[in-house]
């Protein structure tokens, strides 16, 4: 990562991950706007990237479902750069969105897992995630890999634009280097999460709530549960709860809060109070050592402390495990969920 950031895109790691950017990186640096198009889990990775690019690169970002973008008449101006994200590299909606944006003169970057895939070939430049094949249909490790690559691209752009201080860059890089260890620690939560899954395996609905960088994680947690266990689940920004979903909360509703220590912590505390006042069953993902939220929760999952902008790579792990165990307990085939295809090519 450090090699890449020092502009050594020719180094071994630089070539592997970001070599494809070399000629086009300045298009991103000078972009007036970044449009991200993707579907499903990849779209959630795009939402995290929106927060990250806007915070550190100060470039406006819009994230769109490729399946909507392709069927409308989007405004694309000179100076816009499109980033298409896809695990399989074959998703028909994403491919069509790329072709549409290209026909309007946009420069397209791809973030794909599969080398030589249709999306990789259709883009002007891009970066491979090299996460290996997803064994199951539902995307999991691809999400973490997409975030890693998108963060790396954003940090390179931020450094070139001068929108990040050396100190902040150093802090984020050090955190990035520690992510694998923290993800491994999060994976060790497996047994504890299995017990939580046993309590909620017969639930008919779930709500997932998070704010800031953890909002897309709430969406992803809900999507994973829907995809592999067929339980209805909704993900919302925690502050949106009062604008509707709060009506769903009663003593039977499990509400998963992604409530790690960050700048919106106090606000999340009030959201938890609102759920508790309606007797919702609170399951919280918190930062190790947190004192306040565990006291308010029926179940607590502790993840290692991470800079808030990088937390999604860690906070998503317990949610993936929760979906996995609930699905297994319900007798669902987690690798081949009904109605889902590995790559949605129609
Ligand atoms: C997008 C996606 C996945 C989802 C499922 C269906 O695929 O929606 O996120 O888990 O497999 O396809 P991709 O464009 O990232 O390959």
Automatic annotation (TrEMBL):
Its main subcellular localisation, reduced to a broad class, is cytoplasm
EC number(s) on record? 2.6.1.16
Which residues, if any, are the signal sequence? none
Residues in the active site? 342
Q: Where in the cell is it found?
A: Cytoplasm
Known catalysed reaction(s)? D-fructose 6-phosphate + L-glutamine = D-glucosamine 6-phosphate + L-glutamate
UniProt entry keywords in alphabetical sequence = Aminotransferase, Cytoplasm, Glutamine amidotransferase, Repeat, Transferase
What domain of life?
Bacteria
Q: How does it assemble?
A: Homodimer.
> What does the UniProt function comment say about this protein?
Catalyzes the first step in hexosamine metabolism, converting fructose-6P into glucosamine-6P using glutamine as a nitrogen source.
One Gene Ontology cellular component annotation? Answer: cytosol
* Occurrences of domain SIS (ranges): 24-163, 196-337
Please list the coiled coil stretches: none
Q: What is this protein called?
A: Glutamine--fructose-6-phosphate aminotransferase [isomerizing]
Q: What class of enzyme is it?
A: transferase
